[in-house]
Amino acid sequence: MPAIQHNISLQPYNSLALQAKAEYFSSVSELDELLEALAFARDRGLAVTALGGGSNIVLAGDIAGLVIQLNLCGVSHRLDSANNAVEVTWGAGENWHQQVLRSLEQGWYGLENLSLIPGTMGAAPIQNIGAYGVELADLFVSLRAVDLLSGEVVSFDRDQCQFGYRDSLFKQAGRDRYIIVDITLRLSTEPSLNTAYPALDAAVVGYCAEHHLPAAAVTPKMVSQLVCTIRQQKLPDPNLLPNAGSFFKNPLVASEQLATLLAQFPQMPHYPQADGSAKVPAAWLIEQSGLKGAVRGRVAVHDQQALVLVNRGDASGAELMALAAEVRDAVTQGFGVILEIEPRVYGL
Ligand code: EPU
User: Is 250 in the pocket of ligand 1 (CB under 6 A)?
Assistant: First the structure.
């Protein structure tokens, strides 16, 4: 039986460093330990909350029931030499960025654009992490999860996960029902770069010019390093300035509203989608609303990337949620666009 503690501060377990407590807390490293912790919760009628790296959650208040931190580790792989591919399975508790770097060292490619994303392998499918033109769904094969209803370990392929933009089954109908224990991705053993995302393309062009390199000499490792550089310039390091990455999704604006907005704000950046709608950067809407860098006591809108809300020190979830509400209200008033919070909010 894993140790189960009572009344534990979750401040070290969430990258926003919000003060909140777990009624019960347990850290599990093996599937058996997870099943034992779940039995403990079931016997006492306790709600269960699973935590990965805690980098995409907002603890708005204390968490009743049992909080389980997933530390299941391990990496295995199966080569598919005929197709220059490899399928890799990671325990849910493995750190995402460390495994991106390890994969590159092994000569397994495809994760480079997703370098330096905080969090764990097991949390990655929940919000279908994405950055610089690649998202998890592009590489995804399957995952295994414990179904809290049956207590069984079940498998999901890509279609069953219902991936969308920062979305999956595990944020929708499967929310609170499954605890992911491992994930399997298909990577390439042949480098194949995807550098079309404008900020990444600009970085690659600049790097080649500076080092007198032809574009063909660019490697996945270089792309990984460039992505790290871009992220470090814009996104605050949670260890130095607690945050949960993008706090809002980039909203999809329908074609009619888009036309109206563009007539009023011709310089508004927008990324057209197949159906005539467009994704508009929430960061731009927040910046235009005058809130980039806004400080409200112990919380703030980051001054380098307006999509990130930060804890300046010992803030409560309520303070952060009040700032989130102010941001949403300002964008709704200024643009008629409703922002949706991206991380999962607990303890409301
Ligand atoms: N912009 C502003 N003001 C800002 C920052 C950005 O106006 O303060 C505008 C600029 O026009 C810029 C555009 O927003 O060109 C896009 O900015 P950026 O490339 O930084 O990307 P983003 O849309 O703000 C998204 C993801 C990030 C991901 C980057 C790169 C979402 C919610 N966020 O941010 O993901 O790293 O693209 O692909 O889709 C995360 O989910 O936690 C995250 C960091």
Answer: yes
The DSSP secondary structure of 58-88, one letter per residue, reads: EE-S-EEEEEEEE----EEEEEEGGGTEEEE
Which member of 33, 112, 135, 342 is catalytic? 342
- Does 267 score more than 90 pLDDT? yes
pTM score, whole prediction: 0.96
Structural domains in the chain, CATH included, are: 5-70 (3.30.43.10), 75-188 (3.30.465.10), 198-234 (no CATH), 252-346 (3.90.78.10)
Interior/surface letters 281-302, b for 16+ CB within 10 angstroms, e for the rest:
bbbbbbbbbebbebebeebbbb
Model pLDDT, residue 348: 87
**Among 246, 277, 289, 316, the one annotated catalytic:** 246
Could you confirm whether 166 is annotated as catalytic? Answer: yes
Q: Is 195 in the pocket of ligand 1 (CB under 6 A)?
A: no
pLDDT digits (tens, 9 = 90+) for 114-170: 999 999 999 999 999 999 999 999 999 999 999 999 999 999 999 999 999 999 999
Report the first-to-last Cα separation within the chain, whole angstroms.
Answer: 30
User: Could you tell me how many helices (H) and strands (E) the chain has, helices first?
Assistant: 8, 20
In angstroms, the CA 320 to CA 191 distance is 42
Mean pLDDT computed over every residue of the chain: 97
